[in-house]
Every structure is written in structure tokens, then in C-alpha cells.
Design brief:
DUF2680; about 130 residues; DUF2680 domain-containing protein; 4 helices; mainly alpha
Length: about 130
């Protein structure tokens, strides 16, 4: 009798999380839940503030790179390459907006696909790794 109760308890403990997942995965309430991120249009003032703070960030990074070259932490060639990359990044954001991206390797969050406004080529998408 004791073994039977132990086996029943183990089966219940194993099947409870599976049943809970199955109930929640196909719940109609799940489809009504909104995502925490929604795209909003910026006002002109917000856009100007964002551009200004982004330019300050780029200037600070350039200053840091130049200081690292002066201190010998980077070679002249490495510093030039880093500055060129910063310029490319600034041009990209000036052209495509200053919003954050998906993260490394172009990963997308749940619900973002080709039909959403959030989908598009990021800085790492289409990069030829070979």
C-alpha cells in the first residue's frame, strides 16, 4: 500500500506541471494579453532630445577612443577603425531612427514577425559570417 501511494504521489508531482502548462498554453485569456513593448511615435521635441543625447554619446565615445590611442591602449589603426565604426553607427541611426534593436544576432521577441512594424533589418542582420 505504501509503494502504491508513493507511486501515485510521484505521478501527480510529475503530471501537475505538464497539465498546468497545457491549460495555460491554449487559454483564451492568453491571446488577450498585450505585450509590454509597443511602438510609439515621438514628438518633435522628443526626437530632438534623443538626437542631442545620442550625439553627446557618440562624441564621448570618440573622445574616449582618442584618449586610449594617446595612452597607447589602442594602436592608431585600431583607433581609426573604431572611429569609422562609430561614424557608420551614427549614420545608420540617423537614417533608421534611434530606437533600440532586437539584440544580438537579430533575435526577435514573441509576436514580432514580418507582419509587425518592428520587423526589419538590424545592424547584424544579413551579416556574412563566412
Amino acid at each position: 500500500m505504501r509503494k502504491a501511494l508513493l507511486i501515485i504521489a510521484i505521478v501527480i508531482l510529475v503530471l501537475t506541471p505538464i497539465a498546468a502548462y497545457a491549460i495555460m498554453a491554449y487559454s483564451p485569456a492568453r491571446s488577450n494579453v498585450g505585450y509590454t513593448y509597443s511602438r510609439q511615435e515621438l514628438t518633435q521635441q522628443q526626437e530632438e532630445d534623443l538626437q542631442e543625447s545620442y550625439q553627446q554619446m557618440i562624441d564621448l565615445r570618440k573622445e574616449t577612443i582618442n584618449k586610449m590611442v594617446q595612452d597607447g591602449l589602442l594602436t592608431e589603426e585600431q583607433g581609426q577603425q573604431a572611429l569609422e565604426q562609430l561614424d557608420e553607427m551614427a549614420d545608420y541611426h540617423a537614417e533608421n531612427g534611434y530606437a533600440f534593436g532586437y539584440g544580438m544576432m537579430g533575435g526577435c521577441r514573441i509576436g514580432f514577425d514580418a507582419d509587425d512594424d518592428f520587423y526589419g533589418r538590424g545592424r547584424m542582420r544579413g551579416y556574412n559570417w563566412n
